[in-house]
Design goal:
Elements lengths: L3 E7 L15 H10 L4 E3 L5 E3 L2 E6 L5 E6 L13 H11 L10 H4 L8 E4 L2 E5 L7 H4 L23 E7 L3 E6 L12 E7 L2 H9 L5 E2 L15 E7 L6 E3 L9 H10 L2 H7 L5 E3 L23 H10 L6 E6 L7 H13 L4 E6 L2 H4 L9 E3 L7 H8 L14 H12 L3 H18 L2 E2 L2 E10 L2 E2 L8 H5 L5 E2 L3
Parallel strand pairs: 1-10, 1-11, 15-16
Antiparallel strand pairs: 2-3, 4-5, 5-7, 6-7, 8-9, 9-10, 11-19, 12-19, 13-17, 13-18, 14-19, 20-21
Length: 478
């Protein structure tokens, strides 16, 4: 009899994908992490360690990076993983016309023609300019290694589970990969089911229809323990910001952006929308980055009078805006948005809440909303900035662009000396703190849940449910 593990995930829709290099929603991420693996990876403490790579070595000025694969790696179809596959994966991820979302920053400096296979397990990537943090970037979950003849309709990777069934917006099923190189799965099958309704998702767990779920409504974290399930709480650097488009009125005026930051009562949102599962943030991301200075800058707190003054000076004394939200953003997001609506009234700002389905939120209008929310997992500062704060960023939802800021980021990426890089990173953070388009009000403690009949899940700083490492989940035996 096959043992099946069933996971309930939040959101998704008809645009769901199995493409390892372009996941967007939680369901996408949960799926690709079963099938594909990057060269490097983050452990549960968010420390970089080797993944498929046995060795990663830059030259002195970080213009060449040599990757050596582990011995004995196999794809799901039994073929060995070779440097030629690594080369093909790099060419797919770094395609300048369509780069992987987490590699877009490198695509512009990758000299693919000058890069080469050195032997069956070794590949050297050549860059046209230094990039000193490539190892941190290559630990991104969306940079999985694929075979030369990769076909997204029949996806083959190296992960602990292999592809079986995929119905976008509904469900997927994966089979245990017996020749997996790391911790082998205890379950023969893994099913991932999409849920758009939190109540239905929780009821499925309590009824025994699923054994784990991500993004448990935080108000249930205590109650669920008495109903045959367990809460899994992880301190993360994940954030659910309010996003303001700096190129569109009214947020093109920085006084309006600063006013909005002074309106938000961060602790109230954590206490009520996240039921205390989080920490106050200060409009900067990357709290586990050793160069993070969010705790050193003046902490923004509610200041309604100053917010009113800024809005009046900007000509928006009676500001009216629409805030777009969705349950697809994750647990607590809609509640946080609703609280902001109430907080804004105190400053005379009329915020109209527009709650849309997750498929619509992450659909064609995603990244175009003037005022909205989003979710981000734990990242280091420079890779995060490359994803969201540069003109070339694939997810620049605030449309932020500042030449000085971009120059600091580029210089930091090239800088091989950690002390000099630290200064550049901190100078960039100061600009984003003063001029950026995010309201980063808190870092959430990720709250998930699992059945009392499974074990092996542990808190992880990177992503929900032990960073979706379902190969480490085991059935509880009596």
């Amino acid at each position: 009899m096959n043992l099946q593990l069933v996971h309930a995930t939040t959101g998704g829709g008809l645009k769901d994908t199995l493409d390892p290099h372009f996941p967007v929603s939680y369901p996408d991420i949960a799926r690709v992490r079963q099938l594909f693996e990057p060269l490097m990876r983050f452990n549960s403490a968010f420390e970089i360690e080797n993944g498929l790579a046995e060795e990663v070595e830059p030259n002195a000025d970080a213009t060449e990076w040599t990757f050596r694969l582990r011995q004995g790696l196999l794809f799901h179809d039994g073929r060995p993983v070779r440097a030629a596959d690594l080369k093909a994966s790099m060419e797919r991820m770094l395609d300048p016309k369509n780069p992987a979302t987490q590699a877009s920053d490198i695509a512009g400096i990758a000299d693919l023609a000058g890069s080469k296979v050195l032997d069956d397990r070794t590949y050297r990537l050549k860059l046209t300019s230094p990039y000193a943090i490539l190892d941190a970037v290559m630990a991104g979950y969306a940079l999985g290694i694929v075979p030369q003849d990769f076909d997204v309709k029949h996806p083959i990777g190296t992960g602990p589970f292999k592809y079986d069934i995929f119905v976008p917006g509904q469900r997927s099923r994966f089979l245990k990969f017996d020749d997996y190189w790391d911790v082998k799965a205890s379950f023969d099958e893994l099913a991932i089911l999409n849920f758009s309704d939190d109540a239905a998702k929780v009821n499925a767990l309590l009824a025994g229809q699923v054994q784990s779920l991500d993004n448990l409504p935080t108000y249930l974290a205590g109650a669920i323990e008495s109903q045959g399930a367990k809460a899994l709480v992880s301190e993360t650097g994940g954030w659910v910001p309010f996003t303001m488009r700096v190129d569109a009125k009214p947020f093109s005026d920085n006084r309006v952006r600063q006013a909005m930051r002074l309106i938000v009562d961060r602790q109230q949102i954590i206490d009520q929308a996240f039921n205390g599962f989080g920490r106050v943030a200060n409009d900067l991301y990357g709290p586990f980055d050793p160069d993070y200075i969010g705790d050193e800058l003046p902490q923004r707190t509610p200041d309604v009078e100053q917010a009113r003054s800024l809005l009046k000076a900007a000509g928006y004394e009676n500001l009216q805006v629409e805030l777009v939200t969705s349950t697809g953003v994750g647990a607590g997001a809609v509640e946080a948005a609703s609280l902001f609506v109430q907080q804004a009234k105190k400053a005379g700002v009329d915020v109209r809440l527009n709650k849309v389905d997750g498929g619509i939120f992450f659909g064609d209008q995603y990244l175009s909303w003037v005022f909205a929310q989003d979710f981000w997992s734990t990242r280091l500062y420079l890779p995060q900035a490359a994803s969201c704060a540069l003109k070339s960023s694939p997810y620049n939802e605030t449309h932020f662009y500042d030449e000085k800021f971009a120059g600091l980021i580029r210089s930091a990426q090239r800088e091989v000396d950690p002390a000099r890089r630290r200064q550049l990173v901190q100078d960039a953070q100061r600009i984003e703190y003063e001029e950026g388009g995010y309201i980063v009000w808190g870092f959430q403690n990720q709250v998930d849940a699992y059945s009392e009949f499974v074990t092996g899940l542990e808190p992880a700083r990177e992503q929900p449910v032990s960073a979706f490492r379902f190969n480490r989940v085991r059935p509880v035996t009596s």
